[in-house]
Amino acid sequence: MYKLARSFILFLMISIFPVFAIEITPMVVTLSPEKTAPFSIIYNDLPRDIAFDIQVYEVKFDKAGIYKPALIPLNNSPLWVFPPSLFLESGQHQKIQFRWLGDKFPAMDKTYQVSLIEEGINSISIAESSKLRILMNLNLIIHIDQEALKPDLVIGKPYIEKGYLITRVINRGAGAARLSDYNIKIKKKNIKVGEYYKNQLKERGYDVFFPPYCSVLIKLPIPKSVKKDGLYGFHIDLVG
């Protein structure tokens, strides 16, 4: 009875008190020399003011696709982010702009992480500063995408494990790509036995980024039609 009452009180608290947050949209940005400079908008829905310092990192992907990407901090980044720091009053929003400042775009598509690192505010009251507060970090991903640079995807031999069709994809090109850019055709003896259309898996929350000159493992749910055809002899085609 006590647990039930406590749960009911918790439900009432969640229902009565609003949920406050920081919102950034979009959080994944594509920057291209052929298009207008992009931007994101940050909204402060917290009941307090907030300040951020901004740090830019270059994302270094593991070519073998085994280890997590490394973040290299850049002091003189060719990716220009404005403003370089943020102060948002409660309820305020701010545009964050991105532009390429290098003499020319890189010889291959690159990826950067823009981190918004919360800073303490000197103007808050002593009563507020004495409260326990966890400073937040927010990360945006900036992909440099150049139409002149193309991916060159080589698809390995797939295998089945725990209900998934798994294969390794090697991008031998200077351009990046995403799994959602392609129709995925699953074949056996050159006969199509299953297919996922562009964005179909992305709509379910699954997408894969293929960096230039890197290897990436992909896991595809096995369509029912594939299960009926046995477990061997499959190959996968990605059709743009």
Please describe what this structure looks like.
This protein is mostly beta strands and 240 residues long. Helix content is 10%, strand content 45%. The strands form 5 sheets. Strands 2, 4, 5, 7, 9 and 10 form a 6-stranded mixed β-sheet that branches. Strands 1-3-8-6 form a 4-stranded antiparallel β-sheet, with no helix packed on it. The protein is elongated. InterPro entries: Ig-like_fold (IPR013783). This is Pili assembly chaperone N-terminal domain-containing protein.
Give the arrangement of secondary structure elements.
Blueprint: H1 2-16, E1 22-25, E2 28-31, E3 39-44, E4 50-60, E5 70-74, E6 79-82, E7 85-88, E8 93-100, E9 111-119, H2 126-129, E10 137-144, E11 153-155, E12 159-161, E13 164-171, E14 177-178, E15 183-188, E16 191-196, E17 209-210, E18 214-221, H3 224-227, E19 234-239
Kindly provide the name of the CATH class of the largest domain: Mainly Beta
How large, in whole angstroms, is the Cα Rg? Answer: 23 Å
CATH-level-2 architecture of the largest domain: Sandwich
Query: What's the CATH topology name of the largest domain?
Result: Immunoglobulin-like
Number of strands: 19
Task: Report the biggest beta sheet as strand number plus sense, adding barrel if it closes.
Answer: 6 strands, mixed
Give helix % range. Answer: under 10%
Uncertain segments: 1-18
